[in-house]
Amino acid sequence: MKSTMGFLFSTLVGVVLSVSAFAASAQENPDELVRKSTTEVLAALRADKELAAGDPAKVEKLANEKILPYFNMPRMTQLAVGRSWRDATEAQKTALINEFRRLLVRTYSSSLSQFRNQTIDVRPLKLAASDTEVVVKTVINQPSGQPIPIDYSMEKSKDGWKVYDVLIDGVSLVTNYRSSFATEIKNTGIDGLIKSLADRNAKNAARK
After folding, report:
1. Which of 92, 97, 104, 147 has its Cβ near the most Cβ atoms within 10 Å?
2. DSSP SS3 for 91
3. Rounded distance, CA 86 to CA 121, Å?
4. Rounded to whole angstroms, how far apart are CA atoms 162 and 139?
């Protein structure tokens, strides 16, 4: 699961790289946005060898400016923390969101270099005018190995469609984090989880 979760972050950019698409095309179907964005990221990886190799500075800049703004980080963090979220103070919630965001950026940065000659198929989506939440289904085709189904849970906001969860072969990203977060909270409380995330992020930053 760990290697698959790592590969996930090298494919997430396919959902949200296109700033103009998400910012200016809120009426465009989410599956079309995904398809358009995957085309752009593949072109970016081919054009920039340092980015494709996972250059930390370039990948973090890409993630912070072009990717994570199109994730609903408060909702993702709430889902990952689970029941304990309601017991957290506003200051603790803000700290959790910030540290979880940093964790995702660093995980993404360290795993982008795994992306090689994969291709991405986006399944057509039946979208009703009243839909505000959808699941965009994609398949990652690998040169060798079985295809990997990846589903993106997305919601429509005033700023366009945003991702709030990702399922790899049916396994949820936020649920995967929830189990480890729950253990940390049980042992050391919410502040302990915040400290654990901050310490992990600090160690990751020191490895640059």
Report:
1. 104
2. helix
3. 38
4. 19
